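The aim of this short unit is practical: by the end, you should be able to scan a pair of folded records and say something sensible about each. We start with the first protein, listed as its amino acid sequence and then its structure tokens.
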Amino acid sequence: MLSISSSKKEALFITSLIILWYSSNIGVLLLNKFLLSIYGFRFPIFLTMCHMSACAALSYLSIAFLKVVPLQRIKSGSQLLRISTLSVVFCGSVVGGNISLRYLPVSFNQAVGATTPFFTAVFAYLMTFKREAWLTYGALVPVVAGVVIASGGEPNFHLFGFIMCISATAARAFKSVLQGILLSSEGEKLNSMNLLLYMSPIAVLVLLPATLVMEPDVLEVTLSLGLEHKLMWVLLSVNSVAAYLANLSNFLVTKHTSALTLQVLGNAKGAVAVVISVLLFQNPVTFIGIGGYTMTVMGVIAYGEIKRRFK
């Protein structure tokens, strides 16, 4: 009876983590779209800085006081430089993604974002000369072809938004490969929560001057919106906390399940986000767009499965 009860508790815990991961990831995405495109809050760099500020504060709270994971200290100046490099690339990916949400519907944003494995494979080959089996590369053909088809069938296609979305996706893949190279030695490896703890304040330092230069009227407009819309500060706060919870739940789901489970759940998450966003924002979709997105997701699933078998 005790073992059954224990297994039920573990299953309930993992289910709760997955629900938190889904709700925080999709919540951040939809809130970003609402704030940047619908609400009139046109400051993607400042929004990213809010996210990073919350991640810095909550990471410190979780690690130093709640002991979610043991604190891993930076051991050298070169390690700090590597983390700073990762932080700048990470900033670029998040800012680019947020900018794209000003111009593109969430459904198309997710379709483009699903091409991350393609860019990861390209950067891995260019930077480490790591080759995959030809069958693995073949699975990437429908990933790219699906986005090309979805682009042609997207009623609200916006070239600048598309460029920013592709750039953000490429930067996300680049950061993943770069992280594997820069923090590959045993003495310098950091788990994702400690990496976030150190990357977040560096990101804030990078984003603050960028905000002041590129979004000089952010405080004036934000205060004005705050007076006009009483929920403005609540939305910003919830959005920023959700950004941290997305990182925390990502780490915990991987820890208590597996990277493969996370990949499968991630593919399903994209589809769920698309359905919810279409229902919520009522953006038009076409059969061509749906077909292209479906092809991309199927390609990503095939890529993951083939890569696992050839390991």
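Turning to the second protein, read its sequence before its tokens, just as you did above.
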Amino acid sequence: MSTFESTVSINKPTNTVYQFLADMNNHQQLMPDDISDWSSTVDEARFTIRNMIKLALKIEERTPDTAIRIIPAEKPPFDLELKWILSGNENYTEVHFTIAADLNMMMKMVASGPLQKLADDETANLLSILN
């Protein structure tokens, strides 16, 4: 598995950050500009990463104020898991976002840059929205 990670600190209570991330409808705001055809519910989102792949993701696990685990809702081109880990208190939240992808060598060459950019963009956008 290849992992792509990004971490930010947000000056908001952990509960506030968790409530935002626990709703897949909010994740559209976190996505980079090369995302299109977005549709979502509280538990699931479908979208296209321009010139790459179509994805359907769902929240598999919610641990209140601590973690959100997102997995594919339909068979993707490669196995994938997104995980948001939160720690902090009523004034501050440390947010750690990880994308784990099972990439073969060819896919790793093509997808590593965009997946790291996705991780970085999502945490930067979260910081921008919530700070």
